[in-house]
Amino acid sequence: MSQDARLERLLDFLRRSPTPWHATANMAERLEAAGYRCLEETQAWRLSPGEKVYVCRNDSSLIALQLPAQPLEALRLIGAHTDSPGLRLKPQAAQTAAGWLQLGVEVYGGALLAPWFDRDLGLAGRVHVRHPDGRLEGVLLDVDRPVAIIPSLAIHLDREANNGRAMNAQTEMAPVLLQGGKAADLERLLRDWLAAEHGLEEVEVLDFELALYDVQPPARVGVEGELISGARLDNLLSCFMGLEALLESDGRQGAVLVANDHEEVGSASACGAQGPFLGDVLRRVNAQLGEAGEEGVIRLIQASRLISCDNAHALHPNFPDRHDAAHGPALNGGPVIKVNANQRYATNSATAALFRDLCREVEVPVQTFVTRADMGCGSTIGPITATELGVPTLDVGVPQWAMHSIRETAGAHDVEHLTRVLTAFFNRAELP
């Protein structure tokens, strides 16, 4: 498999996935092309050994399963999340000031706000409409051209701008959309965009979940193209690598890819890692292919292993003091095992040993991250899924800079590194 070809697929996936709904749809499209069958949660399931299936919830979370030909005894699970921090439109988004139609926004997750100023912004998400015949439909919308911008205030009018002044998302970050526009123009624009993208005419917009995004495309950066720069690397990069590994695996083992929404806001939702989605799916699969009853479910989960993939903080050349001296992962230095004694990450020595052995098997370097003892530590879907299911889990990821910025940076070689390890995990015949 050519590394350049894989990176081109990654850049295309990032470009076409401005929201969790788009990312899920694009993953489902690749699964369908690879022979995976879509399951509907409201229908009865009929599963066969060796079959490949997937299921979506809320159009923003996805679980894909490669069922083993032999009896279902253990699963190799890879988890990631489809959402990223950013700016979402408020339900009554239209507002006007100084002769401009603007958009009221709400900050989703722990976003770095400063990089959002002076960017060419598109608009994307999910819109629900009513057709003239009364039928309701949810459709994806992607206005992939610069239609909005959040202009900075000139330094002449704010001499303290470079002195760490706080930004107020309510009063200072409303994007400008249309000069001379009125509040009613927003619904007209939405209908126009729906007509242009989907050919929908004479529909009524009932509701929407829309986000702004930077339309600058992702790119390879650096003299030798050693970096990947783009939006939503956290955590679409892990979704991409997990999907690549699943599609390249040999198909002999029970393999699962879980891509949850809402990680950036705590995972407490019907389709988030703290919700019942994964548990529901595993119970239904086990009921048909595994040992019957609750004891069978518990035995399956305890025999399985989960690798939670979410990017790690790389050592920043301008801020080396923000890392523990012995735990500063380098870009292109290999995947990172993330450890936290207070269970902000789910890694323990047993699950870390499995991952180190996988890295040895495919000759990939491996690194370790532990946050400084005087700094707080983020978390992932790993501890949440482990708590909900009880499955032995570890947290890993590729190192990156500028996490939660509108544009993030990771190492181009690390994409190949971690994909090879995840593929080996899916192919692993025996789990410790």
Automatic annotation (TrEMBL):
Query: Which Pfam families does the entry link to?
Result: Peptidase_M18 (PF02127)
Q: What keywords are assigned to this protein?
A: Aminopeptidase, Hydrolase, Metal-binding, Metalloprotease, Protease, Zinc
Q: Which cofactor does it need?
A: Zn(2+)
Give the enzyme's EC designation: 3.4.11.-
List, alphabetically, the PANTHER family matched.
ASPARTYL AMINOPEPTIDASE
Q: Which family does it belong to?
A: Belongs to the peptidase M18 family.
Q: Does the keyword Metal-binding apply?
A: yes
Give this protein's Gene Ontology molecular function annotations.
aminopeptidase activity; metallopeptidase activity; zinc ion binding
Coiled-coil intervals = none
Q: Which NCBIfam families match?
A: PRK02813.1 (NF002759)
Q: What is this protein called?
A: M18 family aminopeptidase
Biological-process GO terms, alphabetical: proteolysis
GO CC, one annotated term: cytoplasm
InterPro entries on file: Peptidase_M18, Peptidase_M18_dom2
